[in-house]
Design goal:
By secondary structure, the protein is an all-alpha fold. Helix content is 50%, strand content 0%.
Length: 94
C-alpha cells in the first residue's frame, strides 16, 4: 500500500513539474506571437478585436444597436448561438 501511494505521489509530482515546464517553454513563443500580432494590427491599422464572426451584432459588442439582432423582422428569433454567450452593451439595456 505504501509503495502505491509513493508511486502515485511521484507521478503527480512529475505531472506538475511537466506542466510547469511546458508553461515556461511556451511562454516565450506566446510572447513572440503576441508581438507579431501587435505589429500586424498596427501595420493594418486595426481598431478592435472581433469576438465572433457570425453575426454583425455580435462582431463587436460596443458597435451594435437594438435592432441588428432582428435583421429579418422585429419578431424574428435570434438564430446565432453567440446571442446566448454575450450580453448587449450597457448603453442598450437601460
Amino acid at each position: 500500500m505504501g509503495n502505491r501511494a509513493l508511486a502515485l505521489l511521484l507521478m503527480g509530482g512529475l505531472l506538475v513539474t511537466s506542466v510547469l515546464l511546458h508553461a515556461a517553454l511556451t511562454q516565450i513563443d506566446a510572447q513572440e506571437r503576441l508581438r507579431d500580432t501587435r505589429e500586424l494590427a498596427r501595420e493594418w491599422a486595426l481598431t478592435d478585436l472581433a469576438l465572433f464572426t457570425e453575426a454583425r451584432h455580435a462582431r463587436h459588442p460596443a458597435m451594435t444597436d437594438r435592432f441588428s439582432a432582428f435583421q429579418n423582422h422585429p419578431m424574428a428569433l435570434e438564430h446565432f448561438p453567440t446571442g446566448a454567450l454575450i450580453r448587449p452593451p450597457p448603453h442598450l439595456h437601460e
